[in-house]
Amino acid sequence: MNKTILIHIGPPKSGTSAVQKALSNNRDLLLQHGVDYPEHEIGPNGISSGNLTSILDLDQDGKWNVSRSKVSDLLERFKLSEAHTLLLSSEYFFYLTNEIAELIPNAKLIAYIRCPLETFESSYNQSVKRHMRTTPVEFGKNLHLTTLNLLTEAVEKLGRKRFILRAYLSSRDYDLIEDFCSAVNLPSLKSSKSNTNSSYTFDALEFKRWLNQFNLEEIDGAIDQALQAYDGGDKQFSLLPESLFNRYQKQSLDNTRDFVHQYKVVNGKALISFLKNRQSKPYHEQNISRCNVKEICQYFIEHHPQVFDDICERLKHHSSSDIQHVEIITLLLEQQKLKSSFLRRLVSLFG
Q: What pTM was estimated for this model as a whole?
């Protein structure tokens, strides 16, 4: 039997979590069609690291490295199995592409190319959502093109034939899961209609950035899950000042067009067309207002009361000389008192 190995390397912020969720939810179907997709955990917000631990190990410095023994064991199990295809997916693989390709020389590497400007903003938002960032976004003279540059280096080193390169599109009629399945000859998969790793609204992003200052790691997952469902405030926004948009837009288009043309990216023309016509979303200066915080408090009280109580209990003991901190913490605690008073009245009326 001919054996095929496919490794989805992301890159980050190109829909990797959605692909992994669809694959994980359809493991039995995939196996029926001869495709082995190793099991992995998926968090309550639909996010996972994919098959990270199938071939990677943490070293003493807390860095992920390719494990020769894990690779060897996995390939041996696959060799003895009835599956004709081994499929792995993790955006962590992206930063170790060369090492993985060396240890698994017959593997095809799947990568999606997204608008670099969208990748940059999305990466910043993710750093606030999941990595406790507290500082505003910073813009340099030129757009960060780290992902595209690293992918270029990998393709040049390993050769174009090792890669399946596809464009990640932002149009409404684009279905990433369908595109992924067609790219690697998988059966059609049922995908959840819920938005995996959905974006924060602007108000939610700024509230989370403010909260990140208070070391709430123990309840950070619950806060993130709640804020992903919050729909108050603007959903369409940009943190990029209009004065920089044209410059970054041109750099994004020029570099993506060069990559698409040089490496024959599937759906690349559609991506270039999107970049040419892409309009700037409304610019929002990063700040947090008392009014917005109050609305978010009401949302937490109504939909996530325990999470709100947990936040308030931790902030009660925080001392600060920052006037804005004191005002917002006071507002949260006032809302908590109103909530408690309301609940006591309900108990007296209906208890």
A: 0.88
